[in-house]
Amino acid sequence: MHLPLPKSYKGVYPFKIGTTSFIYSDGYVPNVTMLGPYIDEIELLLFESQPGSLPGQNDIGALSLLSAEFDLTYNIHLPTDISFGHKDPSPRHHAVETILRVLDLSSPLCPSTCTLHLSYDETSGEKEMVQKWRERIYEAINRLVNLGAKAEDISIENINYPFAWVEDMVREFNFTVCMDMGHLMVRGEDLEGFFSDHDNHISIIHLHGVENGCDHLSLTRLAAERAEEIIGILNQFSQTVSLEVFSYHDLATSLVFLEKWWHKLSC
Predict the structure, then answer these.
(1) Of 165, 75, 87, 147, which Cα lies nearest the Cα of 116?
(2) Tens of pLDDT, residues 61-117
(3) How many CB atoms lie within 10 A of CB 14?
(4) Please, what is the angle between helix 248-265 and helix 224-234, to 10°?
(5) Beta bridge partners of 154
(6) Global pTM?
(7) Smallest Cα–Cα separation from 211: which of 226, 199, 230, 198?
(8) pLDDT per residue as tens digits for the range 84-98
């Protein structure tokens, strides 16, 4: 028996408040069934692209019906088990084909955005190595767009390297930006600076707690000063904020934490 959230947060904020499709240890449809009455949007985690891991057509149909029933929207986290920057062209081609397949699969859900990792798997950040990786990334995303993917429907997420490495490509192809605040905090980067640099292009914010270098925790792990900084940014944002946590406890406590600080600091 899954425990429901204690109250609804639908329409509470000037942005859509959402969370992931893995709050309960269950499938996509049961998670959406439980969460749909309480939040505005759900981040469908399609992390794994292997056969049997992605939702089937029946699941997509059920999710579409739940969207209408609960006045709910979706965003998609695209697979992370692929590599656009691999040294071998074959895995790069596979990555492009995989993303095209998942975009097609999820299109009936009309997602607000589809978030993509451009992973960096090299052993160092030496300038020449980074440049060669950037060239491979450019080739792959150029192929992705030429084969029909709409760049404006895809948000590139900041992950474990400086976002400047891909920023020019994001702008050239007209991708949007997924601002992951937790990743920025782990790297010790400036949240307000990142938001200011990209605010007109940010389609979604991933928000989660960070402590001792670990992220995707409850927001209750954040210090008061950090909460004030985050609320200041969210006051300027009107799209989707996804509480990117993976348990009922972390979601419930994060929602309470966000509500408390929002009422305390918002105009």
Answers:
(1) 75
(2) 999 999 999 999 999 999 999 999 999 999 999 999 999 999 999 999 999 999 999
(3) 12
(4) 70
(5) 114
(6) 0.97
(7) 226
(8) 999 999 999 999 999
